[in-house]
Amino acid sequence: MNALVALCHFCELHGPRTLFCTEAVHPPSPSPPQPGSAIPGDRDREADREGEGLTMRANSSATQRADMCEGCRSLPASHPGFVSVDSETGIRYLSHQHPRQPQLFSVVRQACVRSLSCEVCPGREGPIFFGDEQHGFVFSHTFFIKDSLARGFQRWYSIVVVAMDRIYLINSWPFLLRHLRQTIQSLQDTALKVFDNEQCVCPQRAVRMNSAFSPAVFPHQRSGNAARSLTSLTQHSNLWASLHSSFSWLLKACGSRLTEKLLEGAPTEDTLVLIERQTEQEEEMSGWDCAEGGGSNPQPSQSESVQPKDFQFDDGRQEDLLGPKFKSLRHLRQVLGANDFRQLAWHVLMGNQVIWRGADPGLIQSAFNVLKALLPVGCVRAVSYSPHYEEAYRCNFLGLSPDVPIPAHVSSSEFSMLVDVLNVERGCVNPVSDDDILSLYQFNISSANTQPTDKGPTLLNKIEVALSNENLSVEVVSLCLLCLKEEWMNKVKVLFKFSKVDGRGKEDTQKVLALLGATGPGEEDNVRLLKFWMTGLSKLYKSHLMTAVRGGERTLTQ
Amino acid sequence: MPTLLQKLFGKRAVGNGSARDCSTAAEQCWASAEFDLAQIRLIVYQDCEKRGRQVLFDSTAIHKLDTSEPTADETKTPPNRSGACHISSQADDKDKPPSYQYTRPASDVNMIGEMMFGSVSMSYKGSTLKIHHIRSPPQLMVSKVFSTRFGSSTSGSTNTLQDSFESMSQTFPSHTSSIGVCRVRSAPLLCLARSASFFAAHSNPVDMPSRGHSEDGDSGIARSASLSSLLATPLPSPGSSFSSGLSSSYQRRWLRSQATSLQHGPMPRWNTEEMFSLSDESCSSNPAMIQRKKIAISIIISLPEREEENHNFQEFFFSHFPLFESHMNKLKTAIERAMIVCRRIAESSQRVQVYLCRVMEALGEFRMTVWNLYMAPRISEPVWLSMISQSTERNLLCQRFLKEMSLLMEHGAKSQFLAALLTAVLTHHLAWVSTVMPSSLPPIKSACQKPASQTVDLLAKSHPYNPLWAQLGDLYGALGSPVRVCRTVVVGRRRELVQRVLYVLSYFIRCSDLQEHVQPQGQMDNPASPCTSQTTDPTPEKTCTPKPDPLKPTACVIGTSEKALNSDLGNATPGTSVEQNHEILLTDTNSTSPSPSLESTAVRPEFTEMGQECFGEDSDSVGGGLEHILANQSPLLHRVQFHIGSPSETANDGQAEGLTGAGCERGLDRKLHQRLLSDIWRKESSDSALGDSDDEETSPRELYGATEQKEYELPLPSCQVESRASVNHFGHSLLGGYCPQYMPDFALHGISSDLRLKQCLMADLEHTVLHPALDEPVAEALCIVADTDRLSVQVVTSQRRVCEGGRLGRDVMVSNLVHTLITSVLQLFALNIASDFCVMHLEDRLQEVYFKSRSLAEYLRGQTRVHVKELGLALGIESSDIPLLAAVASTHSPYVAQILL
Predict the structure, then answer these.
(1) Facing A462 at nearest CB: one of B208, B702, B876
(2) Nearest-CA distance from B21 to chain A in Å?
(3) Under an 8 A CB cutoff, do A107 and B265 touch?
(4) Which of B30, B485, B649, B781 could lock B476 by a disulfide, CB 3.0 to 4.6 Å apart?
(5) Are B530 and A186 a contacting pair, CB within 8 Å?
(6) Do residues B65 and B100 touch, judged by C-beta distance below 8 A?
(7) Confidence at B872, pLDDT banded by 50, 70, 90
(8) Residue of chain B whose Cα is closest to the Cα of A87
(9) Where is the composition biased (Polar residues) (chain A) (predicted)?
(10) What class is the A329-426+435-453 domain?
(11) Domain boundaries, given as residue ranges, for chain A
């Protein structure tokens, strides 16, 4: 809890005094909302902590001086105090006679004085809450401790809980009251036993009656130990260590009394797939390690390894390769021209195999990286550069060196498209910049596809609008693409549930397609897209739906 | 306790056969027992320097004079449980205000005055809050003590009200004994002590100047002030966008834990200067006019006699305190008004009547609000909270929820009532946003279940904040920027229909679920008791665990002196100088000194000398840090100006200025430092503000011996805890059912007629902005009013006072996104797809809204003008979606609001 607990005493000689104080010192913030926006003064606060040493020592030491009587003192001047560490949270609970932090010293002092000599509690024993924004807020519980030598045979104490969070402190009233009462009761019971013992040995009442008018009656003129320490009143040699433990526990328990369960959204399909792939890869790697004794290098050829980070922007390898690259979908579109780009993107979205053949692997990989953003992660199977042809079931993005022949069944298939990257013949008179891809290369696009690519899918139509609008930054376009993909992924989920899990008929499926907004112009393409994208759903999601069905149906038929 | 729990939440889901019954199922009453209006008593007290303490109002001393019905005392007729709590007497004869008779205040007023003001009055200028528990008869007393503020014109006649009371005693000869003002003399001192200054402390107000006045702008307090201003500013800087995955829910909680942290010491906050106005005009410019006069308002609530009821009420009261306090502030404003208004009336008995009438009316309001807050029916199973807490009944809940929503959709099909209502709710109750923001962590259980936020969990453990507060903000939708709070009221004569709307909305108005961790009853080894193992035998042999013997110093560093000394000056903190100055200022009250100020002035030259010495000797290390130090010091000197018993503050201010040099001691070598410290210690008298004369010296070496040791480490005691669903949390209490009357607190509730709503709403919204129960500044308060009879949805705001055609607020434009969202979810449901899946789809669609808001925010970054057409073409955002998406975007990208405003 963002609070401190202190035991205070109204000394017959010195007035209200802070005896013992337990603070909670929190670790540095786990993660401020954002590095740049750390609360101003954060550094200063660190500095505060750095600099605490001197002033606080000055303080606590100063107040532990010999001028204080036994009753005003808890730990002897030489005592370093106590600490308990909550290993789970890193919070440290520190106890000293006075708080270590200078700004808290006056706060506690104020709370002590108000608790014992300003605020009025009916019956003088009991709980009060008081405070204001400037001095902090205090829950105080005053109580008496029996002392056979004190005036009225008792001494007055209070335990104060000080916090800045007014509402939290008030919310905690019932809890604090319940537990402080236990603490107080335990102190009082112990002291009562001591008192009774002392009274048996030497009944003070009689002593006092006999010396009724002698000056010795006045406590401050009695023998030196008139003001007895709480240790002596309870005959509890480890009192302060115990109180430290009690107070530390109280702070911890009060802080964790209420916990909240705050839900986040479920992870996106992309996240789930990435996690699954990563797990698979780890398992594979460890499998290899076992089989080959870790001897040979298990290089997974050129095939794409999945990065657990944001797939859209990450590409570690691209940096390794020099030469011109495609920077964004818009860049690719500018280089290829709107028509060729449309065709290319259409094939990508339909799940057809897209083959790029050329001498520059870096360029080809950059093209794939840009194009992959069009698809859900689960739909991407890429072989970025290979010396021989790979079948379509193995990859939908394939990069080939210029001399690799394309098998006839592939080049004649309507489900594949080929982009040949040709070097432009030119003299090296002008050193061209890397950006100017068109001056270096020529792109030939070919496919056996006879279907029109200009109607759908709806998703592509919308992306093209965004890409062609130069007012929109690349970031806006990529967020826009993210929205569109998520939107269509959600449709994919419904279709999967409907057709694969529930196995509904055609008529119903058509209804669902209509309500998903997949019908109308480009309907055929939309449906193809949905069916292709279905293959990209995470295993976790699919298996959940499959198992949930049984549970779900049961409740339906109940 | 268990019986209440059973009563409230024992009701399990009813069979799914009759979903229609669900929404109409009996709503639950909160309270376990009757609550009588007369249980609430109001006392207004004044503490004046010259005239002592006077009771200005005591509700127990007031009797209504009613010729027709002499026994009619509204407080004596408790409203029945199901019916509304009306103050009928006022409603009936509005033209003829009731007349009241003020009799002898109860015998306990003296004691109550003592408790309200304390035995020593404080000269702190802000308001002070106090809560007392009175054991017999069991009562809770909440007091607010205010400093007064006068206008120049009326400052001369501040006592007219008391004069009137006094003169009134003559108009009621039968009550002459001590009608009216009861003068209370200063309380006898609680304890006696030898020291003269101790008495001084009692006879003089404890001097606590308000911080805001004494500090200059670019001072070191900027450290904390900037933090609070960050919180107080509704619009953080555009750079602070949190679009990188951390939700505003997290951010709010983190800021709260920082803002309320003790480690920063007390910080001036946004509402410190709350005063009691005794005049219409703003504060008099003449400071001489300001007298030392305080007005305190106390609400005393009699607690139920039965132990369990008493316990339950207290749990409710303390967990809902922010709401009680907010209503108390309203009451205070009304009392202020009453005093100002009645002062304008010349004739004294009439003046008293006006005053009594107005205060009684305000008290009636307060009583009724509290009664309603405690007694009003609640939604027995709010959909969202039930879904996240009971995973076993999820399917059933989903089914019921969708069925209710379908019925509602059918009902208002033509007018798009549901779409409009959900547009408004999703736009303003923004807590849903963080529940759809995609998690980056793999799901623990199953794909469909939303994971609990681990970052928030970690934060709560290491930097505790108040989960109740967080929940309140969630419910009111205070997650956007600028901070807006919203409530939703559903009006309609058809109970069943209204309840259906409430039920459906309880899915969309979201908050976190709270768990309470308590120590099981009868646990033997209680960590709270320091002497448990000792109670049988108080001999030192049988010591309590943990023993200190195995203690070893640990590497716990809270800045050892070595470290502090070596740390470079650049890091020097203003805090360093605080304590010495603080100590020194306290010496003013030293009783041994015949003239405190003399002693202090004696200290001063030494310090300045020290400062010079320090800079001279070690100029290298001082270097560039010097400016920093000096710049940071001065304000903190002011900050420590709490000196008890010091009669003069101006003198101290001057001294403090002179002592600035002392702060440089961090750059000193140890020797110098010791000298400095010993000088300080010689001059100050320990921590005694109340003075003591036996000043002794301690050698600095001895002190250093202490400082270089490290604390003994003890294990942190652990204790078994039981977790249970928390009963008294806002997620349950602020989702109201079909209530007999309009309620100003509920995040959601239904009413049959908007009559009272129309009367109170604007004032309530304005009050919310002035005194938000949320305990943080609020830019705007809103209320969504859905009328199921007229099938209309309007949003009323605290910012728009006049609406065309006498209507409350503005009609809601249906967001196309929301419309398609509901339609497709309900169509899926109609196609007989598992309801569990439909709800998952609903969540997916809400996530789409979130993603869209991200692209809107990105689009707006750097834009000065919004091209609505472009938004539609490029981003698929229609103009009808913009208010919703902008509100959602403001939770992760605060700059959005600035651009769209």
Answers:
(1) B876
(2) 17
(3) yes
(4) B485
(5) yes
(6) yes
(7) confident
(8) B716
(9) 297-306
(10) alpha beta
(11) 3-27+70-209+228-256, 329-426+435-453, 474-553
CB environment B525-562: b (16+ within 10 A), e (fewer): ebbbbbbbebeeebeeeebbebeeeeeeeeebebbbbe
Average pLDDT score, chain B? 67
- C-alpha to C-alpha distance for B350 and B343, rounded to whole angstroms: 10
Residue A221 DSSP code: G
Please give, rounded to a whole number of angstroms, the shortest distance from the CA of A301 to a CA of chain B: 28
The residue type of A405 is: P
In contact, B557 and B716? CB cutoff 8 Å: no
Pair A333, A395: CB distance under 8 Å = no
Q: What average pLDDT does the segment B366-383 reach?
A: 90
CA angle centred on A323, ends A319 and A326, rounded to 5°: 75
Give me the pLDDT at residue B203, please: 32
- CA B41/CA B35 separation, integer angstroms: 13
Whether residues B573 and A47 touch (CB distance < 8 A) is answered with yes
Of B270, B275, B264, the closest CA to residue B128 belongs to: B275
Residue A278: its chain B contacts at CB < 8 A?
none
Q: B877 to chain A: nearest residue by CA?
A: A480
Task: Choose the closest CB to B459 out of A30, A46, A179.
Answer: A30
Query: Within 13 Å and on the Cβ side, how many CA atoms surround A472?
Result: 30
Measured between beta carbons, the chain A residues lying within 8 angstroms of B532 are: 186
pLDDT over 80 (residue B419): yes
Res B512 pLDDT > 70: yes
Alpha-carbon torsion (B104, B109, B110, B116), positive or negative = negative
**Contacting residues for B601 by C-beta, under 8 A, at least 6 apart:** B655
How would you label A129-155 residue by residue, b for 16+ Cβ within 10 Å and e otherwise? bbbbbbbbbbbbbbbbbbbbbbeeebb
Count chain A–chain B contacts defined by CB atoms under 8 A: 696
Q: Which of B716, B726, B870, B873 to mutate to test the interface with A (most CBs of A within 10 A)?
A: B716
pLDDT digits (tens, 9 = 90+) for A274-317: 888 888 888 877 765 555 444 444 444 444 443 333 333 344 44
Largest CA distance in chain A: 124
| pLDDT computed for residue B463 by the predictor | 80
pTM score above 0.80: no
Question: Least CB-CB distance to B463: which of A18, A26, A473?
Answer: A26
Nearest CA-CA distance, residue A118 and chain B, Å: 5
The packing angle between helices A102-113 and B575-587, to 10°, is: 40
Average pLDDT for B743-763:
91
pLDDT of B612 > 60? The answer is no
pLDDT at B558: 32
| Residue among B528, B694, B832 whose CB faces A249 most closely | B528
Residue of B378, B360, B493 whose CA lies nearest to B87: B360
pLDDT tens per residue across span B220-256: 222 222 233 333 333 232 233 333 445 777 888 888 8
Contact B534 A236 (CB under 8 A): yes
**d(CA A409, nearest CA chain B) in Å:** 39
Distance from CA of A132 to the nearest CA of B (A): 5
Q: What is the pLDDT of residue B202?
A: 33
Residue A426 banded pLDDT, cuts 50, 70, 90: low
- Average pLDDT on B709-725 reads 80
Residue of A nearest to B828 (CA): A512
Looking at residue A307, what is its pLDDT?
39
Worst-scoring range by mean pLDDT, A171-180, B241-250, B491-500, B716-725? B241-250
Q: What is the mean pLDDT of residues A517-525?
A: 80
CB-nearest to B698 from A65, A162, A462 is: A65
Judged by CB atoms closer than 8 Å, whether chains meet at B576 and A165 is answered as: no
